[in-house]
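Researcher: Last one for today. Full complex below.
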Amino acid sequence: MNFKLTEEQKMIQQAAKDFAERELLHDVIERDEKSIYPTEAMKKIVDLGFIGMMTDPKWGGGGMDTICYVLAMEEISKIDSSVGVVLSVTNSLVIWGIETYGTEAQKEKYLRPLATGEKIGAFLLSEPEAGSDATSQHTTAEDKGDYYLLNGTKNWITNANCASTYIVIAQTCPEKKHKGINALIVDKNTPGITLGPHENKMGMRSSDTHSVMFNDVKVPKENRIGENGFGFTFAMKTLDGGRIGIAAQALGIASGAFERALKYSKERKAFGTEICNHQSIAFKLADMAVKIENARNLCFKAAWLKDQHLPYAVASSMAKLYCADIAMEVTTEAVQIHGGYGYVKDYHVERLMREAKLTQIYEGTSEVQKIVISRAILKG
Amino acid sequence: MKILVCISNVPDTTTKIKFVNNNTTFDINGVQWIINPWDELALTRAIEIKEANAGAVENITVINVGLKTTEPTIRKALAIGADKAIRINAEPKEAYSVAFQLAEVIKKEKFDIILCGIESCDYNGASVGGMLSEFLDYPSISAVSFLNIENRQLKLKREIDGGYEVISIITPFIGIVQKGIAKDARIPNMRGIMMAKTKPLQVVEPVQVDNYTEFVSFFHPKPKTACKKVDPENVKELVNLLHNEAKVV
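Model: Here's the assembly. Have a good evening.
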């Protein structure tokens, strides 16, 4: 057992913190309010190498481990989890998926520009009637010999507009149910793809979320990831890792809110003393700190298992479930500690509370995580 | 052209300063260490110059006087973009001995541009750059807020009352830099962080030199008292406070 971070890991943590404080904090409230995508900050994220940070350097990536990624995600999400989700989707889902299961040709064509940050990725699984029930894919990828013909609609797609490379999960052979599903790499500018309007979300409002419609979109056969029918397994395997990223994002939201609440409690006076001297507030802070510590340990454990090439699906579900749930609890308490100030936008904690809610919903709701965990423990 | 940036290992600027051993020693317990901010800006500018003038700058070296515990700070300088590093294996106790140690290495290694931050943010001695210039017999410019290579010539700006001087200088020289030399310290990128551990960090044993000063004791400034508010109508009370309490009129 070793809980000590390496010098490199500490440096990455500090770099992410410095970046977030310098480049994201100054306009995070305005971007949230007006749903503005962080175009300028994303250029700097690319320069700093946070996109592709875990990818093999031979494809232009940083070659770092998952712990480094978790540290960066936490620090960035403390300030702005909208940026966190752009990173998470591109790194954990799209880049990792292609690097792990793609062909050499797919890696050369799609992974390299993603790993260097030249392009952003999006992962298209959810549908109007297929969220948690991912096997019920209505989007079809009809086998036309040397290409697939893609038709259907995908919902709640993060990075839908800013991404250039999509991974689309679609049904090729409905009679085979989930074994008929394929994962296809699709260029966003392929004819027949249209985007719905930007979603007017409760939180993470400066991330780029749209519906995506496919109308007779031709996708070359060589863009299929893995064997015919591998798509559902691919999606599940990819989401196992994705959950570590979202867990780290939720952890960041929680620790960001906690840091603000802690600072505020030492400054704000009531009944003649700083409010942290009142037991009702001090105990709240203690509870929040314990939850965050627990969450961080679960998150690091899942990341460590992944780095050690050990099974991590259940650990990542546990981390995602717990981090998301405590993010909701901790941000709610952070608003409470701030009182009236917490309910207005200038103090950030109401935004963090809105952001926390999403982490209980996307990349597998908290209920789906409980299905994964309970099945694993019941199986023994 | 070779650039050397002298870096100090200092406590993070948000550190709560405490003293131990009867107020004679700074308590390093739990302190996070960073590159002295002025030195970090100097390094950032050196890297900018190297990037903007392809081939003109052969390499950038950072040098530090410190024990092995300063190596994480040195590695960060390498992650930001220095090509190599030298650590003089001695505890930095005061400006004279630090400057002396640096000078001994610089005499052997030969650099064209030597940059020092105007002061370190721990003890604020503001002396090493000037002393280094004396030991090496190199010209030095203090309070440099701009440095560039223009038409193969070095151009510097130095702030003076109401404006600034533009200076050209021959090499080798010592630039003692202040805020403004670079906009913001550079954040190391992921590739830089990974490469930092493979870049050369040479450890040099110190020469014998005496310390001429020592810290006798430290004390904290008085804590700031709360702001007193006087009713705008009550001029008499204001005058009374200024006269009898603040004793400024």
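Chain A has a mean pLDDT of 96. Chain A has twelve helices and nine strands.
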